[in-house]
Design a protein that fits this description.
Radius of gyration: 50 Å
Strand order of the largest sheet: 1-2-3-4-5-6
Order of helices and strands: HHEEEHEHEE
Helix content: 55-70%
Largest sheet: 6 strands, mixed
Strand content: 15-25%
Shape: rod-shaped
Number of strands: 6
Structural class: alpha/beta
CATH topology of the largest domain: Trna Endonuclease, Chain: A, domain 1
Distance between the termini: 152 Å
C-alpha cells in the first residue's frame, strides 16, 4: 500500500474537514446547552407553580383555621359572658338573701326577747334601735350598728352575722372605738357603751376572742336567742 505524500492542498483539506467537525460539535454543544437551559427553566417554572399552589393551599388553610378560631373565640366569649352574668346574678341573689338573713336574725333576736336576756344579766335595757347609721364629718368616723339596746346610762351595741368569725369580732371592736368618738363629738354623750356580737353560727375562736375583749356573745337557734355563758373573771368592757 502506497502512502500519498502530503501536499499543501491536502493539508488545507484536512484543516477544513476538522473545522467542519468542530463547528458541528460546537453547534451540537450549543443545542445541548439550549435544551438543558430550557429543561431547567421548565423545571423551575413547575417548581414555582407548585410553590404558588402550595402557598395558596396553606393560605387558604390558615384562613379557614383562623375563621374557625375566631368563631370559637366568639362562642367561648359568649359562654364566659353568660356565665359571668349568671354568677353575678347568683351573687346578687345571695347578697340579697344574706342581707335578708341578717335582718331576719335581728327580728328573731328582738322576738326572742333579747331585752329580757340582758335584763337577766343585770342591764336595765328597755328599748332598742335597729340599723343605726352614724357619721361624723369632722372626725371622719362612720358605720352602722345592727342593733342597739338602751337603758339610759348604758347602751349595748350588737353586731349581727350569719356566721361569726374572729375577724368580725375584731371589726366590731374597731367600730366600738369609732362610735365612742362619734358620740363624744356629737353630743359629748356620757352614755357608756357595751359591745356584743351575735351569729347563727359562732366559731369557738370568735367566741373566745370576744370574751377576751370584754364583749358578750349571742347565739341563735331557731327562733330563740341566748347569751353565751361568760368565762370566770369576765368583765364587760365599757367604751
Amino acid at each position: 500500500m502506497s502512502v500519498q505524500p502530503l501536499t499543501y492542498e491536502s493539508v488545507l483539506e484536512l484543516i477544513r474537514e476538522n473545522s467542519r467537525e468542530m463547528r458541528e460539535e460546537h453547534r451540537e454543544f450549543r443545542r445541548s446547552l439550549k435544551e438543558q437551559g430550557a429543561e431547567f427553566d421548565r423545571k423551575m417554572e413547575e417548581q414555582r407553580a407548585e410553590y404558588v399552589r402550595e402557598k395558596q393551599k396553606r393560605d387558604a388553610e390558615y384562613a379557614r383555621e383562623k375563621k374557625e378560631r375566631d368563631a370559637e373565640y366568639v362562642r367561648e366569649k359568649k359562654e364566659r359572658d353568660a356565665e359571668l352574668a349568671r354568677i353575678e346574678k347568683e351573687t346578687n341573689r345571695k347578697i340579697g338573701k344574706l342581707t335578708g338573713t341578717i335582718g331576719s336574725m335581728v327580728e328573731h333576736m328582738i322576738g326572742g326577747r333579747i331585752l329580757e336576756k340582758f335584763q337577766a344579766v343585770g342591764y336595765e335595757v328597755d328599748h332598742y334601735t335597729r340599723n343605726h347609721f352614724f357619721s361624723a364629718k369632722k372626725s371622719g368616723v362612720k358605720g352602722e350598728i345592727d342593733l342597739i339596746l338602751h337603758d339610759g346610762d348604758i347602751s349595748i351595741l350588737i353586731e349581727v352575722k350569719t356566721k361569726l368569725e374572729t375577724a368580725d369580732v375584731r371589726k366590731h371592736l374597731e367600730k366600738m372605738e369609732k362610735y365612742r368618738i362619734y358620740a363624744n363629738a356629737r353630743w359629748n354623750d356620757p352614755t357608756r357603751f357595751i359591745g356584743a356580737v351575735a351569729g347563727a353560727v359562732v366559731t369557738d375562736e370568735a367566741k373566745d376572742f370576744a370574751h377576751e375583749n370584754g364583749m358578750y356573745v349571742i347565739v341563735q337557734s331557731g327562733d330563740a336567742v341566748e347569751i353565751v355563758s361568760v368565762p370566770v373573771g369576765f368583765k364587760a368592757k365599757e367604751w
